[in-house]
């Protein structure tokens, strides 16, 4: 199972426009504040959870315990020393917090052997070190394998009832489908409205 954060399946023009409207309206004009993240505390907690050798940083093997960081290891490793420090994790989380975006659209494309998989339930769970600031999101794939991810309807602002949206943050992804292996691999994603490709992911089972 693989996650490609720069999805091969590209949304149509109408979908791109819709996503842009949601991002601008909810993030800037809709009164939805960015998640109440504490970047320093979150980074320290991530190191506590995943730094098994006590070095104070995460190597690639340790980062594999946090699929989202593992997927973007080279981006998190800003100084290129093959380790991700708490300061580097803090910097990424500060980027999410400082984006000014409280909610944004996010799509997950699910395939099996390159074939679109419909009726798959996709679940996104915030990493524990996010400190409870994020809500879990879910979606079901359509015939094209695309799932529009969203927090629970009752958690959406009234002005955005019925519009799928998630908060920027670091999540784990799980896929439930008869063709998915039971207890299959868990992957991750960084929902980041200001990063290219940060509004979608592709999962190949």
Automatic annotation (TrEMBL):
Domain of life: Bacteria
GO terms assigned for molecular function: calcium ion binding
Residues spanning the signal sequence: none
UniProt xrefs under PROSITE patterns: EF_HAND_1, EF_HAND_2, PROKAR_LIPOPROTEIN
Stretches assigned to the EF-hand domain: 64-99
Protein name listed in UniProt: EF hand
